[in-house]
Amino acid sequence: MNDRRDFFKKLGILGLTSVVTKLNSQTISVENILDKISGNSFVLPQLPYAYNALEPFIDEETMRIHHLKHHKAYVDKLNSISSTKFNFEISDQAKCNELKLSNAESTIIKNNLGGHVNHSLFWELLKPNPKADINQPNAKLLDAITKQFGTYESFKKQFSETATKHFGSGWCWLINERGILKIVTTSNQDNPYMPKEISGCHSTSILLALDVWEHAYYLKYQNKRVDYITNWWNIVNWEKSEALYLNSL
Ligand code: MN
What pTM, to 2 d.p., does this model score? Predict the structure, then answer.
């Protein structure tokens, strides 16, 4: 019980309490993240499809390395941190802020927990066995996107441009920020679940996640991030995305 309370406290410091509660709401199956709370280790989630299921848009080797090396490294790092490190005694918000900015351990946990959460989301938001027909959002999400961005095509263009232009490693997201759909990027393994002062944006409702770290595409696409992004649209799991959208209303 103490483990559970302390872990939530730690997540709270990092602004990640909402990650756990949100992701535990059946729309995304990353409940393994909760294992740590029960005093167990973090667990690398299995992919909900085969490593070659996203071919030809993301190749099997990239998927294997991305999942079994990169994502696993974040999980291993979290597990290497003694559970006592999660037990900060936080009495007020000012102290939280101070800790966020100054504690190196907190940064390590933020980066690796961010990496674990982001990749868990990313896998779930990819659709295996892509068909030749057009891949686009279901009716309700399509409606919301059209309302916000004019047309689906203009949304795609804006999202692709934002993801392409993001400098260095990071992520591009579609978020629902209090009823307004927004395209935002974060650096490294930050995400919109984190406080705005950390990640530069904030929402408890992520609808799309695109990894723009080079490790996500370099083997197949080399430096051509734009080609990777163009192909990613074919394997977006719009069913999951719409479930997240409906959950955010
Ligand atoms: Mn990645």
Answer: 0.82
Summarize pLDDT for 80-116 with one digit per residue, the tens.
876 544 443 333 344 444 444 335 666 777 788 889 8
89 C-alpha to ligand 1 centroid (Å): 32
- Nearest 5°: CA angle at 172, between 142 and 189? 140
Distance in angstroms (rounded) separating the CA atoms of residues 86 and 8: 9
Q: How many structural domains is the chain composed of?
A: 2
| 3-class DSSP assignment, residue 48 | coil
CA 211–ligand 1 middle distance (angstroms): 6
Question: What's the gap in Å between 166 CA and the centre of ligand 1?
Answer: 15
CATH of the domain at 180: 3.55.40.20
pLDDT in tens, 105-151: 667 777 888 898 899 889 999 999 988 778 999 999 999 999 999 99
Full domain range(s) for residue 144: 139-248
Give distance in angstroms: CA of 55 to centre of ligand 1.
17
Q: At which residue do the structure tokens 């535990």 appear?
A: 24
Give me ligand 1 centre to Cα 118, in Å.
Answer: 8
Is position 132 within any domain? no
Do both 148 and 239 map to the same domain?
Answer: yes
